[in-house]
Amino acid sequence: MNTIILKKPGQLEKKETEMDQDLKPDEALLKVHRIGICGTDMHAFRGNQPFFSYPRILGHELGVEVIEIGNQVKNVKVGDRCSVEPYFNFGTDQAVRRGKTNCGENISVFGVHEDGGMREFIKLPSRYLHQSDKLTYEQLALIEPLSIGCHAVNRAGLTKEDKVLIIGAGPIGLATIQFAKIKNAKVAVMDVNEERLEFCRTNLDLTGIINAKSNKVIDDIRNVFAGDLPTVVMDATGNPQSMKNTFDYVAFGGKIVFIGLFQGDFTFFDPLFHRKEITLLASRNALGTDFQQIITLMEEGKIDTDLWITHRVAFQDLPEKFESLLLPENKVIKAIVEL
Q: Which of 11, 56, 136, 211 registers the highest number of CB atoms within 10 A of its CB?
């Protein structure tokens, strides 16, 4: 079968590999139809993705078709269209026993810690498949990146009373915006990239849009929220300075949610943390229930995915075109690989 392998930073290679069709009783054989390109893939290509080794088959945002099933599989059938939940736990450590399958001690993320879906066929335990009769393969491939924002919003426990500042207007920030708006919260977005902010102005109905380069950011935030500070600040940048600034932006008694990952030590001023009685949360990956929630919302037409996909690439062309997706001048929001 055709497979694309990241041999080392900057080098993608298409080659023929053998397909193992021997299914375990709980496994399904899947035809890959769509693959989303995400920030993790781009970081891996550049050589700065943490917890990563080469060579590696990328791809964890997937829209797949069930080709064959093991004799114990009950949740899907041949012909089903599915999204893949790529957070695999093969043990029952403490977090998994408590239902936190998104952050198991021995978690393996498909396409990151182990070879992923950038190939024609894969086989997976069927419990990681989420089926829909209504959604397209393209929509199913978008569920995983959407799930990061969905899980973060669920972690924050947003309500319609909240005033929410989302920092970072990339794909994860945009996903977070969608779910914060579904909760009927007042939502503002902040970024340093004016083109991304203009995308938000044009396409999203938000309470406010703030350029983080302003020399009066806190005044700008208060203007958006009628003099108040946000009750919830959600940072999707993974930038340590941006993360540190959230302590100044959040209201007294408010919450901070770190979605983006910074690979290093992070410090904050403890007296301010205590004086404001801030709740600080991390959000990692997503749960199976998040996937099901998103499928329901998408099937009901409550999530618009049309704006997301700005670039499409044929599978066979990806090794030559991948690097172009990283260039700022190409203004990629989300690229989809078509098989």
A: 56
